[in-house]
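pls design
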């Protein structure tokens, strides 16, 4: 399949001051992340708060510059230092944020908000207004009814549709959805998710779907990337990862899903302990301090993202699945001929 976006060993650190007398440190918000997104694919990105999901999204939008690694967009490397390059990226990559109200200018009508980006790109005023109305119609907002409404006159779902219209009006190749439906109630969530599915098919879009809601991610995604403390822990097709997660952190995330089924009640916490400080993460695997199968090798050496023997497209960063890593479970799997 045609690759639209690739992330190669991407890293971003933020300096943290300890005060007048305290030492300074670095938060490794994103560290050594690598994955690719294929054309017309929906790639889900999940992880706890602080895992680096939103920082990664802002790196992809060139809103912040990476410290390490590179981003490849349509087979061309992105140089976030150049203003012209940032404009090139923004013409191909658009983002829909979580807060639908804060994302809109309260002094712009829906049509003016959508037309603003088109005009900034150089479209004549009349053409920008016409394309804005077309985009509003595509997202289910009849221009005659909604074009002249201000954000405070719209519901949360309608405001998010305006944000989506603003993004697709610029004809992007990939849309980054950062918790785009998490602030909506369930019935409106379903409507917006169905709309995104229709737009994907109609316009040939590619999505990077960032969410903490694992049920929503499973519903919309083709593949999934799991992050923890800035690191990629697992990558694979959504059904394989949900049905047979390889990394203990992924297993804990999936086990912690909320459910109304009394037969699926969780009697014990799937994972215990607090995440370590991102300023001074533990050596080796960053999940080792909370992992139920951690062994000395996990605390001594960082596991590399490696494919499983049973599925070369299913990758995980866990010594228990790396042949000859020194982990007892890896040795057992090798002796038994299991993946």
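designed seq:
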């Amino acid at each position: 399949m045609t690759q639209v976006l690739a992330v190669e060993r991407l890293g971003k650190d933020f300096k943290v001051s300890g005060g007048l007398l305290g030492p300074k440190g670095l938060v490794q918000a994103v560290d050594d992340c690598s994955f690719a997104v294929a054309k017309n694919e929906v790639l889900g990105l999940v992880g706890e708060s602080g895992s680096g999901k939103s920082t990664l999204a802002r790196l992809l939008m060139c809103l912040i510059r990476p410290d390490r690694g590179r981003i490849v967009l349509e087979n061309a490397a992105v140089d976030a230092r150049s203003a012209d390059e940032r404009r090139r990226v923004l013409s191909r990559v658009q983002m829909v944020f979580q807060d639908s109200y804060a994302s809109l200018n309260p002094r712009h009508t829906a049509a003016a908000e959508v037309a603003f980006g088109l005009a900034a790109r150089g479209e004549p005023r009349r053409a920008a207004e016409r394309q804005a109305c077309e985009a509003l119609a595509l997202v289910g907002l009849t221009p005659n009814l909604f074009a002249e409404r201000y954000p405070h006159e719209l519901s949360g779902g309608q405001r998010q549709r305006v944000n989506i219209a603003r993004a697709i009006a610029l004809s992007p190749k990939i849309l980054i959805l950062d918790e785009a439906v998490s602030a909506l109630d369930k019935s409106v969530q379903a409507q917006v998710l169905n709309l995104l599915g229709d737009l994907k098919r109609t316009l040939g879009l590619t999505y990077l779907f960032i969410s903490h809601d694992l049920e929503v991610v499973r519903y919309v995604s083709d593949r999934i990337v799991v992050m923890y403390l800035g690191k990629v822990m697992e990558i694979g097709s959504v059904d394989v990862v949900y049905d047979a997660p390889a990394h203990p952190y992924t297993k804990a995330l999936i086990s912690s899903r909320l459910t109304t089924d009394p037969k699926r009640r969780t009697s014990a916490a799937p994972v215990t302990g607090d995440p370590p400080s991102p300023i001074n993460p533990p050596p080796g695997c960053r999940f080792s301090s909370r992992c139920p199968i951690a062994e000395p090798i996990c605390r001594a050496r960082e596991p590399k993202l490696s494919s499983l023997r049973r599925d070369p497209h299913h990758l995980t960063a866990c010594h228990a699945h790396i042949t000859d890593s020194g982990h007892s479970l890896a040795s057992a799997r090798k002796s038994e001929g299991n993946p």
